[in-house]
Every structure is written in C-alpha cells, then in structure tokens.
Design brief:
Elements (H helix, E strand, L loop, with lengths): L6 H4 L1 H23 L5 H25 L10 H27 L5 H25 L13 H19 L2 H4 L3 H25 L9 H27 L14 H38 L1
Protein name: Myeloid-associated differentiation marker-like
Membrane topology: Multi-pass membrane protein
Main location: membrane
C-alpha cells in the first residue's frame, strides 16, 4: 500500500534535495536561454544539470510516495552513490563551463556558473549527511571506499569520452587501443556497479575475487594507455599558435591527464581490494 511520506521532504536530506532540484533546473534553464553550442563540453554541462535534476526529482517523488521502500535494490546505497556522482559531475561542470563559455558581459553564463557551484555545494552536503547520519555509515558497496572509487572510475572515463574526437585516433592502431581500453573498462565498471546495486552478486564463484582480477587488469591496461596515448598524440604535434578555447590539441591534453588519474584510481582500487581480502583471510585464520 502506497502512502505519502511528508517527512521525507522536510528532513534535512529532503530539503537539500529540493534545493538541488531547484538549482540544477535554474542552471540548464539559464544556459538554454543563451543558445545551443556544438561543443562536447557544452553538451556535458547540459547533460550534467539535466541528469542531476531529473534523478533528484525522481528520488524525491519515490521517497514521498514510499515507492522507494518497495524497489528490489539497496535504495540508501543507490541514493548515496548518486549524491557522490552528482557532486563530482557538478564540480567538473563548475570548472568547465566558466572556463570555456563565460566572459565579462555574459551575465546569464556567469549566473549559471554560480548556480553550478551552489549545486556542487548542495550535493556535497547531501554526501556528508548521508554518510554521517547518527545510525552510522551506509553498509552498501557504493557507499564504501571501493564503491566510491568505482564511481570515480566511471566519472573519469566519461570525461575522457567527452574529449575524444574520431579524427584523433582513426588510422592509429596505438590510439585505437587506448580507446578500446577506455571503453572496455568503462563497460565492465558499469556492469559491476549495476550487479552490486541489483544485489545480483550471487554467482558460482567469488564476486569479490572477480572484481580484484578486473581491477588489476584495468590498472595494467590503463598503464599502457597512459604511455601510448601521449606518445602517439603529441609526436610531431605541437600546440598551434592560434589554439584558443576548445582547441582540439587541448582535448588531447585533457584525455592524457584523465588517463593518468584513472590509472591512479584503478591502482589504488586494486591495492585496497587485495588488502581487504588478506585482512579477511587473516581474521578467518585467527
């Protein structure tokens, strides 16, 4: 039986979500009135605000109607993961949009940039509230350190895809390998997250060990991309003198740095996962 839960909207987390929905709506509304841009960075910023607005509103509705309690997955874990992802996305957008699309007389763009920073602050506040609630931290996978690193890995991959252009890697087997690395690791990371949220990890073999194997392979694959991408991208390819905002050469730099960051995250994820396994074995022996 579905009933309305007004408390879900009046509690601190509910109020923060209402503010997030209002602020993200203001962001994409202001940018939409400015006009369309063909830049992938513009598309990323608009996607971020619309994505955050839609799912924040959906969370509010599902909790207000108590439908969230009847869903076949870990609701608290999913909302905590969404808040972490939204804060990362809004942080990136708050840096990207004013860097490429604002000027001294661009009042609506400046307003959207300010609202975006407020969105980041609101979602960061939600993360703090959901992870520091009186009953303790969430026990779900996505609320743990390995889960947060999985979210960060997918987020960094999204930034890489946003900066990729087909002409950058067509005709170069080395760069095509890098794109394959980004794509495969992203797909498997999403599958792990979905299986965990849906509580579908009961398989004939150890899911935790499978994740460790994946983390190690992903770290190794990213280590090759970390070397190959800049080697092939910047060989005899200096930055053009007329390279301004949204320059294709700068996107190569963006992909390079995101590759390095994701390699570091995958490496830390692998080390931490192995540490947890040895810690569990040690406790079982004792």
């Amino acid at each position: 039986m579905i009933h309305l839960n007004l408390w879900s909207l009046t509690q601190p987390v509910g109020i923060i979500r209402i503010l997030a929905a209002i602020l993200t709506c203001m962001c994409f509304s202001l940018v939409a009135t400015v006009g369309y841009s063909s830049s992938p960075y513009w598309a990323w910023c608009m996607f971020t605000w619309v994505f955050c607005f839609f799912f924040t509103l959906l969370i509010l509705i599902l909790e207000f109607t108590t439908v969230s309690a009847k869903l076949p997955f870990a609701w608290d874990d999913s909302t905590a993961a969404f808040a972490i992802l939204s804060s990362l996305m809004c942080l990136a957008t708050s840096i990207i949009y004013p860097t490429f699309f604002t000027c001294n007389t661009c009042h609506r763009e400046i307003g959207a940039s300010v609202m975006s920073w407020l969105c980041f602050g609101v979602y960061a506040g939600e993360v703090a509230l959901t992870r520091l609630r009186p009953s303790g931290q969430n026990s779900g996978f996505l609320s743990t350190l390995p889960g947060i690193m999985k979210i960060l890995e997918t987020f960094l991959a999204c930034l890489i895809f946003m900066s990729l252009e087909r002409q950058q890697y067509v005709g170069s087997p080395g760069l095509q390998w890098c794109v394959a690395v980004y794509s495969l690791c992203f797909i498997f990371c999403i599958i792990i997250i979905l299986l965990t949220i849906g509580q579908l990890t009961s398989i004939p073999f150890s899911f935790d060990k499978l994740v460790i194997v994946y983390n190690i392979l992903a770290a190794v694959m990213y280590s090759t991309a970390m070397v190959i991408w800049p080697l092939y991208s910047f060989s005899n390819n200096k930055r053009p003198n007329n390279c301004g905002h949204l320059c294709p050469w700068d996107k190569l730099v963006m992909v390079t740095f995101m590759t390095i960051f994701n390699f570091i995250v995958y490496t830390l994820d692998s080390v931490y996962s192995i540490h947890l396994v040895f810690e569990t074995l040690a406790s079982q022996i004792q």
